[in-house]
């Protein structure tokens, strides 16, 4: 029997259902396609259909999933009564090349199963709860029933049951997480999010389920297994979660070097009813594939900062980095200088807008974005002010070694092991910069490090750029920043004040007690114990500085 039930090497046991809630007000019927990913690799798809029948509800599916799941669904049919009492299911599939036929008939609280696999047929019966969902393992179209039950959920939490046919019944705990807007290339839609914990024998399994306004499945994800199932219309790389919204926000497409950057402009309240030009701020995000809201640890850092500055009378633009979200271009070969080109493209775009004061445009860079802001300002003197938040004062090579030393100091490695790791890091950095070779460096480490971006990061030295700048510079640094310790803010301020042709009052350093690298109040500096909102002192410092250095009529 164990062999007959071995449908997947992932040992995921599926979700459960709600009580007998009616689904009035929804129109769930229709077909869709679900795309299945494991650790970012597309494994295949399942066609899913929900249909209202004279007997109640019917869910049907076909599909194909590559190894390691290795499952071909020739036919899946699941049947429910009008009140979502389960009636039965039929599966005709190939599991790892072997025919699999499952027929489950539910009568009252008894689920009678006939399972044929590897030429053997086994009959078994299980007692199940009234209203349990039928969720056969790895047949993801069955989750459409879970989605419809979640749509009818009353309250914020619930205990549900599911029959993982033909294996066993499990319980699941459901918690409502909230809703958000999903922007696709075709439209925007409302997603309702739920945390669903499958109370599997031995160890619970956490997942997240998203549904649309009609109660249809949008997304199912299990972080521990790297599993994500997405409805096709939200699977595009250009789909983005609208993590934060503000009345009057405007989506813009910004011409760059052969591609468009896509971003959001936030404006002061009532801007549509007011003629005139606003001072503007360009927000430049940190390292990695960062979208326009710069969402880290669930905190939309730039989305919140944009709101603060717009409330104070500024027009603020934030954008998906090239090759990320809805922006075009490719990021794999991009350097810091290329990202600075993108800032200048945004600067030109703003200059052409009738609602922007071309003489009052500032650039705000966070983390690595501070370096990009410096490069952009050094190449365009029409950027009128520069804000460096959580910026680095030394070279990238020095920062990596500093961060490594901090991690090693907190580790349990022996002194000899620590020295070996530092030596390897130095060797890698020398090879990337063309000052050494790759001998004895693991191949996977070389693939990760030998990139144009990392080369530009290691070589960059902000001191050489700052001395070229004439613009006013504001430095903001959290005193609980573990990634870029506070002494970097002090050194940046010293470098800015040492400029020969810049006025003495053109530099300001603001250090924020109790604030971490994400610009959020925290207990220890780690993101895990931080708040959920950017410190209002960040917005206040920027507003005060820019109003002084970029006054109206400047």
The tally of beta strands, per DSSP, is 26
Oligomer classification: single chain
- Residue ranges: pLDDT <50 for 5 or more in a row? 1-26
Q: Mind telling me the C-alpha Rg?
A: 28 Å
Separation of termini? 80 Å
Structural class: alpha+beta
Number of helices: 11
Percentage of residues in helical conformation: 10-25%
On the 0 to 100 scale, the average pLDDT is 90
The profile of the biggest β sheet is: 16 strands, mixed
Beta-strand content: 35-45%
Shape: elongated
In short:
The chain has 11 helices and 26 strands. With about 550 residues, the protein is an alpha+beta fold. It is elongated and about 85 Å long.
Describe it:
With 554 residues, this protein is an alpha+beta fold. The chain is 23% helix and 35% strand. The protein has helices spanning 143-151, 301-311, 336-351, 368-379, 396-409, 415-432, 443-449, 452-459, 462-466, 487-497, 536-549; strands spanning 30-38, 41-53, 56-65, 71-80, 86-95, 98-107, 110-117, 120-127, 133-134, 157-164, 168-183, 188-199, 205-211, 217-222, 227-231, 240-242, 250-255, 260-266, 278-284, 295-296, 299-300, 315-319, 356-366, 385-389, 473-478, 507-512. The longest helix has 18 residues, at 415-432. The radius of gyration is 28 Å and the shape is elongated. The chain starts with 29 loop residues before the first strand and ends in a 5-residue tail after the last helix. Residues 1-26 have low confidence and may be disordered.
Could you list some keywords that capture this structure?
554 residues; alpha+beta; 16-stranded mixed sheet; eight-stranded mixed sheet; 11 helices; 26 strands; 35% strand; elongated; disordered N terminus
């Amino acid at each position: 029997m164990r062999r007959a039930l071995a449908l997947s090497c992932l040992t995921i046991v599926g979700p459960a259902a709600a009580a007998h809630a009616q689904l009035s007000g929804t129109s769930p019927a229709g077909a869709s396609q679900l795309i299945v990913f494991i650790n970012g690799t597309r494994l295949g798809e399942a066609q899913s259909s929900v249909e209202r029948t004279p007997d109640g509800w019917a869910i049907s599916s076909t599909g194909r999933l590559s190894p390691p799941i290795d499952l071909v669904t020739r036919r899946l049919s699941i049947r429910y009564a009008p009140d979502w009492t389960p009636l039965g299911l039929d599966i005709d599939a190939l599991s790892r090349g072997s025919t699999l036929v499952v027929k489950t008939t539910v009568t009252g609280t008894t689920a009678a199963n006939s399972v044929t696999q590897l030429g053997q047929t086994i009959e078994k019966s299980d007692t199940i709860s009234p209203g349990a969902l039928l969720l056969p393992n790895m047949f993801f179209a069955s989750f459409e029933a879970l989605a419809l039950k979640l749509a009818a959920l009353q309250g914020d939490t619930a205990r549900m049951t599911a029959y993982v046919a033909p294996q066993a019944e499990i319980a699941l705990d459901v918690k409502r997480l909230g809703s958000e807007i999903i922007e696709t290339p075709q439209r925007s839609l409302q997603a309702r999010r739920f945390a669903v914990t499958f109370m599997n024998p031995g160890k619970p399994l956490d997942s997240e389920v998203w549904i649309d306004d009609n109660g249809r499945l949008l997304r199912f994800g299990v972080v521990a297994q790297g599993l994500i199932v997405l409805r096709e219309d939200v699977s595009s790389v250009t789909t983005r979660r609208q993590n934060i919204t503000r009345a009057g926000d405007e989506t813009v497409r910004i011409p760059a070097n052969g591609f468009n950057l896509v971003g959001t402009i936030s404006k002061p309240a009532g801007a549509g009813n007011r003629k005139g030009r606003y001072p503007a701020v360009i927000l430049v995000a940190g390292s990695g594939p960062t979208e326009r809201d710069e969402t880290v640890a669930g905190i939309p850092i730039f989305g919140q900062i944009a709101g603060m500055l717009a409330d104070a009378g500024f027009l603020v633009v934030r954008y998906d980095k090239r090759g990320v979200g809805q922006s075009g271009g490719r990021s794999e070969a991009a350097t810091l200088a290329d990202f600075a080109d993108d800032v200048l493209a945004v600067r030109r775009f703003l200059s052409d807008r009738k609602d922007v004061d071309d003489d009052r445009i500032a650039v705000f860079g966070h983390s690595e974005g501070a370096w990009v802001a410096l490069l952009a300002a050094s190449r365009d003197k029409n950027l009128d002010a520069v804000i460096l938040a959580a910026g680095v004062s030394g070279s990238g090579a020095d920062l990596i070694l500093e961060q490594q030393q901090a991690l090693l100091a907190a580790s349990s490695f022996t002194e000899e092991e620590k020295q070996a790791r530092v030596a390897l890091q130095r060797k890698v950095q020398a090879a990337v910069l063309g000052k050494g070779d790759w001998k004895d460096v693991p191949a996977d480490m070389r693939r990760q490090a030998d990139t144009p971006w990392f080369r530009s990061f290691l070589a960059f030295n902000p001191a050489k750029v700052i001395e070229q700048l004439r613009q006013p510079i504001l430095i903001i640094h959290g005193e609980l920043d573990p990634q870029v310790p506070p002494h970097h803010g002090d050194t940046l301020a010293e470098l800015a004040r040492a400029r020969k042709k810049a006025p003495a009052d053109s530099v300001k350093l603001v250090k924020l007690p109790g604030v971490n690298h994400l610009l959020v109040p925290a207990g220890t500096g780690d993101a895990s114990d931080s708040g959920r909102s950017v410190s209002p002192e960040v917005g206040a410092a920027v507003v005060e500085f820019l109003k002084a250095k970029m006054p109206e009529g400047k």
